[in-house]
Amino acid sequence: xxxxxxxxxxxxxxxxxxxxxxxxxxxxxxxxxxxxxxxxxxxxxxxxxxxxxxxxxxxxxxxxxxxxxxxxxxxxxxxxxxxxxxxxxxxxxxxxxxxxxxxxxxxxxxxxxxxxxxxxxxxxxxxxxxxxxxxxxxxxxxxxxxxxxxxxxxxxxxxxxxxxxxxxxxxxxxxxxxxxxxxxxxxxxxxxxxxxxxxxxxxxxxxxxxxxxxxxxxxxxxxxxxxxxxxxxxxxxxxxxxxxxxxxxxxxxxxxxxxxxxxxxxxxxxxxxxxxxxxxxxxxxxxxxxxxxxxxxxxxxxxxxxxxxxxxxxxxxxxxxxxxxxxxxxxxxxxxxxxxxxxxxxxxxxxxxxxxxxxxxxxxxxxxxxxxxxxxxxxxxxxxxxxxxxxxxxxxxxxxxxx
Length: 403
Ligand code: CTP
Fold this sequence. Notes:
The protein has helices at residues 22-31, 50-57, 78-84, 95-103, 109-116, 129-133, 135-146, 172-185, 218-229, 258-268, 311-318, 334-344, 386-402, and strands at residues 8-13, 35-40, 61-62, 66-69, 72-75, 87-93, 121-125, 150-151, 155-158, 164-168, 193-198, 203-206, 209-211, 233-238, 250-254, 274-277, 284-286, 305-307, 323-330, 349-354, 366-367, 369-373, 378-380, 384-385. The strands form seven sheets. Strands 15-14-11-16-19-20-22-23 form an eight-stranded mixed sheet, sandwiched between helices. It is an alpha/beta fold. 41% of the residues are buried. Helix 1 runs parallel beside helix 2 (50-57), helix 1 crosses helix 8 (172-185) and helix 3 (78-84) crosses helix 5 (109-116). The chain contains 13 helices and 24 strands. The protein binds cytidine-5'-triphosphate.
């Protein structure tokens, strides 16, 4: 999965011949899972039709301050467009548009949107080689960089004029890769290894039966996604679950029992920076596992159980540089019990979910949590989707490891 997946990308097209390549660019952004809208300068429509771009982006294309709808003029809100965007990419960016951007001129919708946008702005220049080298253009580049806009440099090659030199817009594939790498480079968990446990464990009774629990694994999978979206390399060790995940930064290791999970976690812990143990690990397992299916001979049946290893506590006992996070699911005396676990298991942070809160816990799509850290700071949250809870947790960890 691309880092652009789920992001809102606003593509600004100005009037250069390279505009014909923006059809592929829109296609690539859509393929990466992004939502795409296009704003173009009026003259850019001479190079590529809005119909092509709206068909590919699945959104209306805007190019003027107003729209005619059944004789009613409707104002196109450039502020909304700018606020909608997570990233604004101006490609091709002509010398004319770049100069106007650099000098605050806003005589078309693209430029007004640029002035209103608060998100990161990328620009991919495209022009003839002498225009590209002209001091005036260089001044525009410098000024835009001083506004923290990011330049995707033009490449060398044959230009529309027939001349050969620098000024060709970067190829659509290279523009997408450039943006993905730039975003990844700036993410707060880049180069961090994050280890996550998720789901239930199954403890075998015989070849067909096991002791398990209702954990869906959703919370752990959402944490894995949130960590990867912040640039981390994630190892997700999960018990049996229906959850699916596909992300280039997430390596999934399926396990079945508490013992399997313990072994896998310990293989990776040395090189881990942050470990988040959200799995609902069975605390007990059958002492003997029957080799054959157990027959129902008597009216009652007794199963002798023994303790499984506490994976979280075992990590707390050996942790060095690692930031260690555990979960606590409590029914009574929640805060006190969670604080006790934080201390006993030598954690940096514990996420408490109380089963007394409606919508919290194992199965659903929501959770209501409280974070308690090892300096005794307590942060209580409202009921939220597990996606949002995961984002809150990762943001808190980033804050704490940066402090
Ligand atoms: N955990 C673990 N290995 C176990 C049991 C629990 O790693 N064998 C982890 C869970 O992933 C969770 C935390 O320990 O992060 C808390 O689990 P919980 O069941 O709430 O607490 P326990 O310590 O098992 O205590 P109790 O069951 O007595 O409440």
